[in-house]
Amino acid sequence: ATPRDRGSRRDAPTSRERVHLESGSGASRETSIAMASATLVPRHVFGMKGDVKDNIAYADETTVIFPAGNNVVLHHLESKTQQFVPGTPGAKGVDAIAVSANKKWLAVAESAEKAQITIYDLHTLKRKKVLTTTEVGSERYASMSFSPDGKLLVALGGAPEWNVVLWQWEKSKASSVVPSRVANQAPGSAYQCEFSPFVNADGGYTATVCGQNLFRAFKINDGVMKPLASALGKREMGSTFTAHGWLPTDEPGRERCVVANEEGDVLVVENNEVVAAIPATEKYEGCAIHCIVPFGVKGFVAGGEDGALLVYEKQTDEREPFKLTKSFTIESDGKNASIRNLAIDANEENLIATMDDNQAWTLSLANIDVMKPEEMNFERMSAGFHSNGVTGVDLCVRKPLVVTCSTDKSVRVWNYVERTAELVKHFAEEAHSVAFHPSGLQILVGFSDKLQLMN
Q1: Which contiguous run of DSSP H or E holds residue 33?
Q2: Which residues pair with 291 in a beta bridge?
Q3: Which helix (H) or strand (E) holds 324?
Q4: pTM for the structure as a whole
Q5: Can you list the alpha helix ranges (DSSP code H) found in 206-251?
Q6: In this predicted model, what pLDDT tens digit does every residue of 41-55 receive, in sequence order?
Q7: Taking Cα atoms as reference points, which of 274, 271, 310, 270 lies closest to residue 290?
């Protein structure tokens, strides 16, 4: 970056000027060598990648994991400091992430000529394994889930084949690959795979997959995955099942999974049979549910279209085992933005919802019983982010500020020392370029037909 015109006042020398002033001309060659060997280290990212499956997870009570660009970020909620897991060189981007139940392992799926999954140690952030197989039949994975003991990983491949791959990841072995659908099923997309948290009587596990005209369970024993008959029967035809989730229970022998569709209805499945159907209420009829997370043994939370957050609680009536008891709406930056992913901390005190407009919101669950649905009860997880591509950026000379503009029609000023958003301004039209005055008190914003100087 070239130094800006600083006006009549002569500022202190820049770091490059200081090297020559303090070291004398004899240091020029050493300086060139030092600059040539310098590396750029990421310190903080303002933004997140909203189209990644399961793109938010807790690493511990104060640290969350989310993708941004081609990196996976570990963000400390209190200090706002960050650590980075860089993407694989040559990969096309992150498509899905998964965290093991013991918070020891992180799986990152990336698009490439051969879709790949990388396993990292969450404590050291060191890479442990890279998993690839041509049998997945796609350049990407759509979803992943660890087994309860963290030793197996089930991964749902993307288009065109939508195969399900069972990895014994410590051996780098794809021990079983099966189609997500039976041969005579109508083709369509698959959205999510998930391991049941329960151990079967024979010591094996169950994994499930949902999608268009699809909800299917697989029994897993000794590294072999076998499909079961459809739990939904004729209900599968003509329905798109957008999300599902396994629920922990305090009742031994009851293994429940809830399956949601694009109409907002929820089916309750036990032992691979539908035992109850919970139709969408009139207010949320036609509101597709995109994500489900268990809320302890009390019930579950679902997120869907238009920022709808729905809380279902367990009932004693077997015919209606769960009931919608609370609902809230996130008024995000993007109009009609949808909740795509949810995470609840281990103490069930806080919830984070990520949106398809690349924003993240938090909700305190401590007082959820007394919250009023009509109020905006959510706070931003961090500084609000751009929801679309960034088209302009400039740094202030005398203050630790950066200004950016975006196709989302906003201009934002960031403080890269405090790691906060100082100012946000939305416009009726898109800004194409921005420039900071050296004083940090004014910015110049370029639109298609004018320049505006702003305080």
Answers
A1: helix 28-36
A2: 303
A3: strand 322-329
A4: 0.87
A5: none
A6: 899 999 999 999 999
A7: 310
Confidence of residue 5 (pLDDT cuts 50, 70, 90): very low
Exposure letters 298-316 (e unless 16+ CB within 10 A, then b): bbbbbbbbbbbbbbbebee
Smallest CA-to-CA distance from 293 within 329, 235, 245, 242 is with 245
Q: Please state, rounded to an integer, the average pLDDT across all residues of the chain.
A: 88
Other C-beta atoms closer than 10 Å to the C-beta of 155 total 27
Q: Parallel, antiparallel, or unpaired for β 105-111 and 93-99?
A: antiparallel
Q: What's the rounded Cα separation, in Å, for the pair 357 and 373?
A: 22
- DSSP annotation of 338: P
- Provide the CA 17 distance to its chain's centre, in angstroms: 43
HSE-CB for 284 with a 13 A CA cutoff: 29
Give me the sheet containing 289-295, strands edge to edge: 289-295, 299-304, 308-314, 322-329
How far is residue 346's CA from residue 424's CA, in Å, rounded to a whole number?
A: 33
Cα dihedral 187→292→169→211 (10° resolution): 0
Order the strands of the 256-261 sheet from edge to edge: 241-247, 256-261, 266-270, 273-278
Neighbouring CB atoms inside 10 A of 68's CB total 21
Closest CA to 433 of 404, 408, 402, 412: 404
Scored b (16 or more CB within 10 A) or e, 423-433 reads eeeeeeeebee
Of 1-5, 207-211, 300-304, 411-415, minimum mean pLDDT range: 1-5
